[in-house]
Write a structure and sequence with these properties.
single chain; 350 residues; eight-stranded mixed β-sheet; four-stranded antiparallel β-sheet; 6 helices
Length: 350
């Protein structure tokens, strides 16, 4: 009998714990693995050139640089810009667990911190600016690789700007769910020159092209510890099919702006002739359509949540029945309706 007294609380607590784990999609805090990295040099613009046979001491670092294209590059590609990226890098990590597809693409899921190799770059130049952009092509772990085999990217896409620390010796990038690759299982980024120098106020610069002052920097070889995964909380994947459309002030009409200026005339009633098959007020189907757009993972979560809710309510009912039973004096009836039963012994002390 004592065991049954605890059955209700155990069921209710277990249901709450399971529901919390089920309805909160999260990124595992461990399991990030650095798979590969590489960098490419525009000085090796000729497709026949390979990496130098005598690498420099800082070759294992990540390299990012901006400046004028060399004469060989301009003569081979007359349409290329006179200034632009001259060194770009790429990094690739795998996550311990995939991020759910129900997570909004704008939700931050990781922060990457890349420190400078102060042996070769004591501090970032005020002209410098970094971007982390999703890669667009497969790339290999080359060091000082040929420019034609470099990682490609779109700087106008969802890129993360590098935020320097107070000392200017490291850059942090906030990675959102929409920047992940391989169904949310990996981070595959190009680390490239940005648009606004860190020494210029972004609100005042108004720049639309990369900075013109040449600069270069060495970043330490990336490791698994450079990625700090962020917990994704709040049930962002539940009910995603029922999003409310956003409206800005520019799209909201002014009161009275759409009213006619002429005399008011009565609107005739809708005509439904003998051959009409269209109802005057058709039943809206938007909600049904949104429900059909829910992903299988979301549907499964909703069904499991409903079952856990029933389990939670069942545990509460057991607690109420047992508490009433043990508080009722001997010889009196305990319970409600069909569950009523006479007590045969003294109530348990509380």
């Amino acid at each position: 009998m004592k065991r049954r007294l605890f059955l209700g609380p155990v069921l209710s607590l277990a249901a709450l714990a399971a529901a919390g784990a089920l309805l909160t999609p999260a990124v595992s805090a461990a399991g990030v693995t650095m798979k590969q990295y590489g960098w490419w040099n525009i000085a090796l613009y000729d497709p026949t050139l390979g990496s130098p046979s005598n690498p420099a001491p800082d070759t294992p670092d990540l390299h990012v640089a901006y400046g004028p294209n060399p004469d060989a590059a301009e003569s081979s590609d007359v349409t290329g810009p006179a200034n632009g990226p001259t060194e770009v890098s790429a990094v690739f990590w795998t996550l311990g667990a995939p991020v759910s597809s129900d997570v909004s693409p704008s939700i931050p899921v990781a922060i990457i911190k890349l420190p400078l190799d102060t042996t070769y770059t004591p501090a970032a130049s005020p002209q410098a600016s970094l971007l982390a952009c999703p890669s667009l092509n497969p790339w290999g772990p080359e060091q000082d690789g040929n420019w034609h085999s470099r990682v490609t990217y779109n700087p106008s896409s969802a890129c993360a700007p590098g935020q320097p620390d107070a000392s200017g010796t490291s850059f942090s990038f906030t990675i959102t769910a929409g920047m992940l690759k391989d169904q949310g299982e990996s981070i595959d980024l190009a680390i490239v020159p940005g648009f606004t120098p860190i020494g210029v106020d972004a609100a005042q610069s108004g720049q639309t092209n990369p900075p013109q002052g040449p600069w270069s920097m060495d970043l330490k070889p990336p490791t698994s510890d450079d990625v700090a995964l962020q917990p994704v909380a709040g049930g962002t994947g539940i009910g995603s099919g029922f999003a409310i459309p956003e409206m800005s002030s520019a799209t909201v009409p002014t009161l009275g702006s759409g009213l006619p200026s002429g005399p008011v005339t009565a609107v005739p009633p809708p005509s439904q002739g003998p051959g009409s098959t269209t109802p005057v007020n058709p039943v809206p189907t938007r909600v049904a359509g949104n429900a059909a757009n829910l992903s299988p993972l979301t549907r499964g979560r909703l069904v499991a949540a409903a079952l856990l809710l029933l389990l939670f309510l069942g545990g509460l009912m057991l607690m109420l029945m047992d508490v009433q039973k043990y508080l009722t004096p001997a010889g009196q009836t305990a319970g409600i309706g069909r569950f009523a039963r006479p007590r045969t012994g003294p109530p348990l002390p509380i």
